[in-house]
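Predict structure. Chain length: 43.
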Amino acid sequence: EPGLAPYLANVLPTALIIFDDFVPENRIIGLECMHRIIKHCAT
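Prediction complete.
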């Protein structure tokens, strides 16, 4: 699994923007993105 820790400042803001939406489907996509980011930063 690739490590995203060095790129966290590049990828996290986009996931947060997607999560901060009024459409429930977009919020779910944002949460899935953040889950994947956290999963790949922990390794």
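Summary: The chain has one domain: 5-41.
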